[in-house]
Structure formats: C-alpha cells, structure tokens
Amino acid sequence: MKSKTYYTIKEVSDMSGLEPYVLRYWETVFADLKPRKHKGNRRMYTLKDIETIKLIKHLLYEKKFTIKGANEYMKNSEQIVQLKLDFSEKIDKEYVSKMLYEILNVLKGKMNEK
User: Fold this and answer.
1) Gap between the Cα atoms of 76 and 68, Å rounded
2) Backbone angles phi, psi at 44, to 5 degrees
3) Buried b / exposed e across 58-85, counting CB within 10 Å, b at 16+?
4) Domain ranges in the chain?
5) What is the structure's pLDDT at 22?
6) What residues does 38 pair with on adjacent strands?
7) Rounded distance, CA 99 to CA 41, Å?
8) I want to staple 59 with a disulfide (CB 3.0 to 4.6 A). Which of 6, 9, 40, 70 is the partner?
C-alpha cells in the first residue's frame, strides 16, 4: 500500500485486522491514540497512530497485558526513551568537551616546542 499522510478508520481496520469499534474504544482508554477528526467527525489516522495501534495490539493480544498494564508500559517506555536521549546527549557533550580539552593540550604542547 502506498504511503499516505492520513488513513481512514476503514483502512486502518483492514491493515490491523481490528474492527472499527475496537479502534474507537482504544481511543478512549489509550492517551497516545488520538487520531485527527475531520469533516463530519471522520477519524484520520497518521502513520504514528498506526504504529501505536500495532504496539497496543501486540501488548494486549500477544503479551496478554491488561489495558491498564499496556498504558503503564507505554508511559514508562516513553520515559525510558527520553532518559536514553537525555543520557546520550550528556555523553556526547562530555565526550566532545574531553576531546576538545585534549586537542587544546596537544596544541599548547606544540606551541611550547617552537
């Protein structure tokens, strides 16, 4: 299927193998699932929404999570990803700072040799 910006609930239902009423229900219990609503309250899903649906389906149907457990897992996963990003950013800054300091020392040594 060709990639689009928005998908209808029927298209997402066909892609996911889930009934439209399940998708509508999940909107009420999963904060991460909020498709846009266009004219006539028609739901329009993005690729991010579809990825969220795949994750929810995996957690509920394959991992046998409860809805509450799946919500907590998704919330904690977002926090872990953010912590990893924060941590990697900190490492990068420290690494760059250390490398610049070492380069500065090498240059100072070369200047003293002249």
Assistant:
1) 12
2) -130, 115
3) ebbeeeebeeeebbeebeeeeeeeeeee
4) 1-64, 67-114
5) 97
6) 42
7) 55
8) 70
* Amino acid letter for position 40: G
CATH architecture of 1-64: Orthogonal Bundle (1.10)
Tokens of 95: 């690494």
The single residue listed with the structure tokens 């029927």 is: 10
Cα dihedral 39, 31, 6, 38, rounded to 10, equals: 10
Q: Find tokens 């070369």 and name the residue.
A: 110
Single-letter amino acid code for the residue at 26? W
Which residues in the chain show pLDDT less than 70? 1-2, 78-93, 95-96, 110-111, 113-114
Report the alpha-carbon distance of residue 1 to residue 41 in Å, rounded: 25
